Amino acid sequence: MDRLTWKVKVWRAPVLNATAAALLGLLRDGPLSGYQLSAAADAFLGDFWTVTRSQVYRELAAMARTGLVAAQPSGARDKQPYAISPAGREAFRNWLHEEPGPDVVRIPLLLRLAFGDALDPDHRAELLASQRAGHAARLASYMLEEPKLGPGPQRETLRFGIRYERAVLAWFDEDLRAR
Amino acid sequence: MDRLTWKVKVWRAPVLNATAAALLGLLRDGPLSGYQLSAAADAFLGDFWTVTRSQVYRELAAMARTGLVAAQPSGARDKQPYAISPAGREAFRNWLHEEPGPDVVRIPLLLRLAFGDALDPDHRAELLASQRAGHAARLASYMLEEPKLGPGPQRETLRFGIRYERAVLAWFDEDLRAR
DNA sequence: TGGAGCATGTAATGAGTTACATGATTGG
DNA sequence: CCAATCATGTAACTCATTACATGCTCCA
Predict the structure, then answer these.
(1) Mean of the pLDDT values across residues A43-68?
(2) B-interface mutation test, from A115, A123, A126, A155, most B Cβ less than 10 A away
(3) CA A89 from centre of chain
């Protein structure tokens, strides 16, 4: 009885990826064009969650298709603003309450170290030194920023960065004996 | 004079991505099939640099095209082993000495917190608690592993994991007041 | 007034994950 | 012997980056 084996295409709330959700979040206070969104994401999310322009356009197009967002009519060809729809607001709220996925931590240096048998000690030392310097510099710049921020998510994020860089430096200094 | 505007396609050493390089590294001690490589990568690189089977096959095919690796003749259809070529060994050595790229750290929880204004406090607390538990569990399992390892890259990697998880927990407890 | 830079967007490519397919092995 | 599992590989899709294109504005 093949006729009984169909699958109902149940409606399910459009699943958001993190990037799309972030865009919806930014659209909550008013329509923005792709370019403006991209700039807003850079400013608001900064280094810790990068979103490229291409992603913005891709996600906007996709969300327009699923009705989470609506293109506003606008001037001749450029500056096409998009507004969040009620469905979009709901999708955003749902996303906010979903369990966040696991952290992604990918450290190219670690991969090189894994094959460290093939790395001569001098070069290894050089490598470590240069990487360490980068982390130290980042830590310093975070520490400069930090006092300027009031309480809130921005500061929480920066604090994370500070703790991360400190942990990395300690690893260099105490576990990798690179100094 | 259009004829003068061609570009010479200069030869450049095939650039390796980290995944391809890791495979070459594993192939240094002898030919392996895609499946074996995938297993070897899982075992040797573990959680901290994941490589899926699909990636393995893609990279093997690409490297076979560029001559970094050569398909060994073998039994009927399955278990096609690949051997690293001299060019492959050189590419690997070069890669080892390149400057590693920047760390990628992507934390979905941070993105949610960034829009924390829209998150009611109860739910925020719940979110934090569940995330914190995951990190604590991972730290515990790392700490169990650690004493079993002799000195070497594996232990260095694990130490990194331990420091990372500790930093995250401290962030939860001291900066996010989640406990 | 023409070119530097900015605002806006598209295309091409790379990297990663998930789901699917298929023959061999093997334990109950 | 036959069902489960393993070994092997492929296909399709999503996500992310890099490079390219094009019109506008503004000031030297």
Answers:
(1) 92
(2) A115
(3) 20
